[in-house]
Amino acid sequence: MSTERRIMTPHGEGRLVTDRSRHPVATLLVSHGAGNGVDTRDLEALARNLPRNGITVVRFEQPWKVAGRKIATSPKTLDEALVAAADQLRVRTPLVVGGRSAGARSAARCARHLGAVGCLALAFPLHPPGHPEKSRLSELREARVSTLVIQGERDSMGRPEEFPADVDLAVVPSADHGFKVPARGDLSQDDAMEIVVEATLEWIVREVVGSAGRAGPDTGGNGPRA
């Protein structure tokens, strides 16, 4: 069952929606894109399925969305609000920070500062639609922690083949930027969300939980929020 609470950020009230695991081995903090809130199909699928697999999911709704605005505020304000949200967490498990679209960009920019051990980029907007020359790859590189990109095969803001070979990438066949698949395609919408969940779970277990175990019991947490 989800629990909600409002928090203060430098840019107004944000909202945290938490789905807790009974025996968590990792915590995933995710934020949403520039045109929607935390109720997108992918974020809801993660919140519904990951907790029973040992991962607590905390969805952060940015102040602009909580205030009822239609347009997202500047990247700097998104980052500052995300940092404020992370500062509200008191977790004893490794922290993964992530998001979809604009939220993925913010997560990548903030991951190191937050002490995260992983970054989950859902539908990373590699470039504006129709402008591949305006690459945002440098933002993705800013994470400097283990990063998984989950991308739709038909994403107009960056198809899978546009990413460098060294990017850890999971592909949702036939999906667009919102991970929507054709109604009459080979893959159902439920199947598409299962790919998102399974790819995330496998990566967190392998790269985050596994890395924490190899590092030893005193180094697997996320610093000041432990």
UniProtKB/TrEMBL annotation:
Gene3D superfamilies in alphabetical order: alpha/beta hydrolase
KANL3/Tex30 alpha/beta hydrolase-like domain residues: 26-204
Domain of life where this protein originates: Bacteria
Transmembrane segment boundaries: none
InterPro entries in alphabetical order: AB_hydrolase_fold, KANL3/Tex30_Abhydrolase, NSL3/Tex30
Pfam family for this entry, one: Abhydrolase_11
Protein's UniProt name: KANL3/Tex30 alpha/beta hydrolase-like domain-containing protein
Organism of provenance: Nocardioides koreensis
